[in-house]
Write a structure and sequence with these properties.
198 residues; alpha+beta; 2 domains; 4-stranded antiparallel β-sheet; two-stranded antiparallel ribbon; 3 helices; globular
């Protein structure tokens, strides 16, 4: 069966500002009664952390359907630091990457012919992401036009994003659109949503 998550990734905050923003967001969610300050390990499988915040008394306010009285959501994990995030289950690569210089699309996973990434094609992107994680820099030369482009400027689609702050809602019913809008308003940045399963 597995454990399901919904993830919100801030794709604009810097690594230097991520911890302070994370604390502000946690404070807001605690004030709203969505989570508590209590932390737990059970049910958290997020990259970079093994604990999350216990849901608060008003968690139902954030979800689209809370009609099942037996549904108890899991913790909310908060991840800071540069990382890549992949939607779904078990994937570690983007499906494709679009160059911001020439708009050429580099196919990494050639669906439906292949269901695994072409590692030769993915290697420069993987290396660029690794440099970005370590230093905040990292360029990838476009296979089509040759332009060296910062890895953070490539368009990998919504299923693969880079960010320095992310929130995993483990085992929650689908989050409602109003909560998504309010959450983004509190972040003050552009964010991407993912769903997945561990």
């Amino acid at each position: 069966m597995g454990s399901h998550f919904q993830r919100i990734v801030d794709v604009e905050v810097t690594a230097a500002d991520a911890r302070a923003l994370a604390e502000r967001m946690v404070g807001w969610m605690v004030t709203e009664g969505l989570i508590t300050r209590e932390r737990m390990r059970y049910g958290v499988y997020s990259p970079g952390t093994d604990t999350g915040y216990v849901p608060g008394p008003n968690w139902r306010r954030a979800v689209a359907d809370s009609s099942d009285p037996g549904w108890l959501p899991g913790p909310v994990a908060v991840m800071t630091g540069r990382h890549y995030y992949v939607e779904g289950q078990g994937a570690d690569e983007a499906d494709a990457a679009i160059c911001p210089a020439c708009a050429a699309r580099t196919v990494v996973i050639d669906y439906p012919e292949r269901f695994e990434a072409d590692q030769e094609i993915w290697r420069p992107f993987r290396d660029g992401v690794a440099v970005w994680k370590d230093t905040g820099g990292g360029n990838v030369a476009c296979p089509a036009c040759g332009t060296a482009v910062p890895v953070t400027d490539w368009d990998f689609g919504s299923g693969f994003v880079l960010g320095a702050l992310a929130f995993d809602f483990w085992g929650w019913p689908p989050l409602n659109t109003g909560f998504h809008a309010e959450f983004r308003g509190q972040l003050g940045h552009r964010a991407e949503d993912h769903t997945g399963k561990f």
